Amino acid sequence: MIVVMKVGSPEAEINRINQELAERGLTPEKIVGKHKVVVGLVGDTVDLDPLQIQEISPWIEQVLRVEQPYKRASREYRHGEASSVVVPTPNGSVSFGEQHPLVIVAGPCSVENEEMIVETARRVKAAGAHFLRGGAYKPRTSPYAFQGHGESALSLLAAAREATGLGIITEVMDSPDIEKIAEVADILQVGARNMHNFSLLKRIGAQEKPVLLKRGMSATIEEWLMAAEYILAAGNPNVILCERGIRTFDRQYARNTLDLSVLPVLRSLTHLPIMIDPSHGTGRAEYVPAMALAAIAGGTDSLMIEVHPNPAKALSDGPQSLTPERFDRLVKEMSVIGKAVGRWSEPAAVLA
Ligand code: PEP
Ligand code: MN
Known about the structure:
- By secondary structure, the protein is of the alpha/beta class.
- The chain has helices spanning 11-23, 50-54, 114-127, 151-164, 178-184, 198-205, 221-233, 262-269, 278-282, 288-297, 324-340, 348-351; strands at residues 2-5, 27-32, 37-42, 60-64, 85-89, 92-96, 103-107, 131-133, 167-171, 187-190, 211-214, 239-243, 274-276, 302-306.
- It is 34% helix and 18% strand.
- Bound molecules: phosphoenolpyruvate (PEP) and manganese (II) ion.
- Residues 93-337 form the DAHP synthetase I/KDSA domain.
């Protein structure tokens, strides 16, 4: 349920209403939008009569039921307004969301050694990326495949952050690792394979770093939004949704089917920012640029692109990784579409 306040409602009145709602056993959550203040109510609202709530104050404009099972993640919960996820980085704050320019995340699948991660960070920054991605803990299909360097790779990510000022995105696979990863990462990634790991979602929702939630490879949009709801319900409002391709019947040519229809669908269902990952979405470097450009045209808020200094030698996901040179060219191509849809701001590294 949401309580929409009239424009200009006094702060003291909103607080009084919240207190009264809390006394009725509800958990009111004040959401300050661009135009209006809305109070979100989750809990046992089934038997509540919206008209009764309306009577609490003449400053209440409307009381509406949120129909979807994902309450906090729904677009209605913010009365139709998109939210922003603002991430402080050494180079300044970067904002993800519908009202902001496109955010570019790039880097290798795995952190392999200091030289390669620092070099890749420098190259992607010079091309115009805002964040460096790189896995320390890797979820691999085979237990015999490279599992990531783990904790030692975290200090290499810290070195790349220090050298470039780029924000860091890296994956958390297991709850006990959250704290040490959060010391280095600016955004914590939950991978496709862990989207249904509800205890991890609860734990990651209980810490403060923003979360990048990848879509499970066989997850419906509703299941994905319910996974986001776990994080939001645990107290962390900063969730970005990342489409990374789903399983369909044809895996002969592309690793996954990149579902770009999520762009308009999510936009109508949720206020959360959206990221598209054409690297895992296609599995082939030569298909990545076309899908990246299509995603910008379709209205994505951000992109994640795997880049490796020598894809043929990569310890994971080489076939889908762009070379730094190809990435550089891609950013120039992206700027054409980005400008056409009004979502481009020249990255600081490029202006410098
Ligand atoms: C990754 O980002 O390298 C990764 C493993 O992604 P996903 O969880 O989407 O497979
Ligand atoms: Mn990868």
